[in-house]
Amino acid sequence: MVFETRLREAAQQVEAHLQHVMAPLGDLPVVQAMRYASAGGKRLRAFLVLESARLHGVAAEHAIWPAAAIEAIHAYSLVHDDLPCMDDDDMRRGLPTTHVKWDECTAVLAGDALQTLGFECVSRQECHPEAVVRAELTVTLARAAGAQGMVLGQALDIAAETAPAPLTLEEITRLQAGKTGALIAWSATAGAVMAQAETAPLMRYATDLGLAFQIADDILDVEGDAAKVGKAVGKDAEAGKATFVSLLGLEGAKARARDLVADACDALSSYGKDADALREAARFVISRDS
Amino acid sequence: MVFETRLREAAQQVEAHLQHVMAPLGDLPVVQAMRYASAGGKRLRAFLVLESARLHGVAAEHAIWPAAAIEAIHAYSLVHDDLPCMDDDDMRRGLPTTHVKWDECTAVLAGDALQTLGFECVSRQECHPEAVVRAELTVTLARAAGAQGMVLGQALDIAAETAPAPLTLEEITRLQAGKTGALIAWSATAGAVMAQAETAPLMRYATDLGLAFQIADDILDVEGDAAKVGKAVGKDAEAGKATFVSLLGLEGAKARARDLVADACDALSSYGKDADALREAARFVISRDS
Fold first, then answer.
1. Are the beta carbons of A105 and B158 separated by less than 8 Å?
2. Residues A154 and A83 sit within 8 Å (Cβ to Cβ)
3. What is A159-171 written as a DSSP string?
4. DSSP characters for B99-159?
5. pLDDT of residue A1
6. pTM higher than 0.95, yes or no?
7. Contact A143 B151 (CB under 8 A)
8. What is the pLDDT of residues A235-269, one digit of tens each?
């Protein structure tokens, strides 16, 4: 209960900050589409940034910048993912996707500009007084988002569609480490980067968490209620795609996700009780219904 | 002649550097598409970076990073511009466009990852020993590329297609200041940013140069040979779009471009003969046939 309140508060903070950052951009359709596409969502990535920053004594006024950055990058990836030439999804978070609400051209451009905005947020002076921190946040964000991170995961996902055999567990783990894991890892370590502290424990936490997150997504695709999830479910099975559920079975996938969350929590032992919010975030990831 | 040799050498250097930067990315179709889309071209933007850096005594080993960055960003913008939902172009630089050579999905992703790569290039430690310079290059690049710069120009261009009246000279100047001017200005000032020197003279030069560049593009769309230009010509007139040629007439547009180039050259007076390569670049921009 306390955790969910905290998550909601973090979501409201990052929402307000994104609106603030986009305020000078005017009101052309592409900017309206940027605002639309970056609104809502659970804001788990922003929460990870804010909590890892708090854990390291980083001021909230600085941490809000990488929190906004990662949500802008995440939003860009969803807008482009949903395009007809990609996953061709009409609904997202219970609302029409950006290209349905506007058009494909506006959606491509809005996604492009959201990506750019993400990099602007971590390189602006307000983000952190130390330029070396801003540059480190930027270069790590670029690696997490680019062709060695999120785009690699996307590319492997596309390649899988025409592969002669379904992916193995190892292949699907690599795919997801890029597609969702890289941005989650960046978020969870951002606080340590801002404090110029050791990132290893948070990286171990995030690696387990990212995988648990994706297993939970695969479970939701099987068991979830489309109305709650806010998008179509059952698409993976329909497409005959290998998922953690098809490879491990429903119960096996749930057990694996629970083990990963336990490992993620253990990785935070050096922080003691201060990291309880991050532990609750890990448990939330596999208990959510959307 | 000397200038064209220098331009060609700069192009080869940046080409080699982009290949070097992309070497660790493997060989998935999306990475092949990134290499394809970022190959070739005149590399005017990279030349401006390298020359403005040389003018300020910045080491070439550092300057090559923002030069590669701007070409990656430029390449991303072309890949997305050419998409069926945008300008729907089949040819670019005399070759099939990326979505024709691969498919739309790969082109969207390759463009996305090229944008990310651009930000990686300016934030990597090798780019500059001073983190404050890397952060400044990043934030200015984000502003030039995003919804207040290049994407703004694109959005205005789209809005113009359905506008009740053709654009005025003032409106088209604003559109082009975003669409092509912002990246050109970033390129020409990058050397001063790297040297932590005054950017004002190069900014004045670049503002005139960027506008002259776009006027020259409009003239090429009327007078150019598709085989040399490497893409379809005559598209603007066909679409009934307002251009500098439709607004100023062919001779008027040529005269305006010449005046802008003269002003651009004058803006460099404080650098004396050291800036001759940049002056030649300005003259080249309005004399090119492609």
1. yes
2. no
3. HHHT-SSPPPHHH
4. HHHS-HHHHHHHHHHHHHHHHHHHHSGGG-S-HHHHHHHHHHHHHHHSTTTHHHHHHHHHH
5. 52
6. yes
7. no
8. 777 777 889 999 999 999 999 999 999 999 999 99
According to DSSP, residue B90 is labeled S
Residue A107 to residues A64, A121, B252: CA-CA distances in angstroms?
Answer: 26, 21, 37
Q: What sign does the dihedral B98-B100-B106-B107 (CA atoms) show?
A: positive
pLDDT in tens, A16-62: 999 999 999 999 999 999 999 999 999 999 999 999 999 999 999 99
Q: Which residues, in sequence order, are bridge partners of residue A96?
A: A91
pLDDT in tens, A125-155: 999 999 999 999 999 999 999 999 999 999 9
Which tokens hold the place of A264?
């993620």
Phi-psi region of A225 (alpha: psi -120 to 50; beta: other; left: phi over 0): beta
For A85, the closest of B108, B112, B152 (CB atoms) is B108
Contact B116 A147 (CB under 8 A): yes
**pLDDT score of A12 more than 90:** yes
What are the tokens at A194? 């801002």
CA dihedral A199, A202, A203, A205 (to 10 degrees): 170
Nearest to A190 by CA among A129, A113, A138: A138
User: Cα distance from B233 to chain A (closest Cα, Å)?
Assistant: 22
**Cross-chain CB nearest to A113 (options B83, B117, B146):** B146
Closest Cβ–Cβ partner in A116, A154, A159 for B145:
A116
Show the domains of chain B with their CATH numbers.
2-287 (1.10.600.10)
